[in-house]
Amino acid sequence: QEQLIESGGGLVQAGGSLKLSCEVHGRTFSTLRMGWFRQAPGKHRETVADINWNGDSAYYASSVKGRFTISVDNTKNTVHLEMNNLKPEDTAVYHCAARAEYRSTWVDWGQGTQVTVSS
Predict the structure, then answer these.
(1) What is the mean pLDDT of residues 25-37?
(2) Would strands 58-60 and 68-73 be described as parallel, antiparallel, or unpaired?
(3) Mean pLDDT of 75-86
(4) Is 76 left (phi over 0), alpha (psi -120 to 50) or beta?
């Protein structure tokens, strides 16, 4: 089991950028997959992006493709989500999560970090 600690959220104007980080504490292994999710008030949680621990296989939601980049820093056991050209509709609490590559259920979750984009 991994403990996940997010950081980097905040308030930014539309068109601005933020970089979220997720520190992974505990056992890491090459078959771990990491994901970023977000949930806005009154809306369902949605997948933003996910990536394998080797960093060579990533998925992006269509709403963020071309604006967000997910990456893994294996040396620091950290997963980043770089967000550019932010829009008000990106406002949400962002969580990182972990699962085994061969499983479909995300089992470990961070506490979340608030991202607010003003128009």
Answers:
(1) 87
(2) unpaired
(3) 96
(4) alpha
State the SS3 of the chain. CEEEEEECCEEEECCCCEEEEEEEEECCCCCEEEEEEEECCCCCCEEEEEEECCCCCEEECCCCCCCEEEEEEHHHCEEEEEECCCCHHHCEEEEEEEEECCCCCCCEECCCEEEEEEC
- Residues near 104 by beta carbon (within 8 Å), at least 6 away in sequence: none
Residues 6+ apart with CB under 8 A from 43: 92
pLDDT score for 1? 75
Question: What's the rounded Cα separation, in Å, for the pair 71 and 56?
Answer: 9
CB under 8 Å to 75, separation ≥6 — which residues? Answer: none
- Residue 100 forms beta bridges with which residues? 32
CA distance 36 to 41: 17
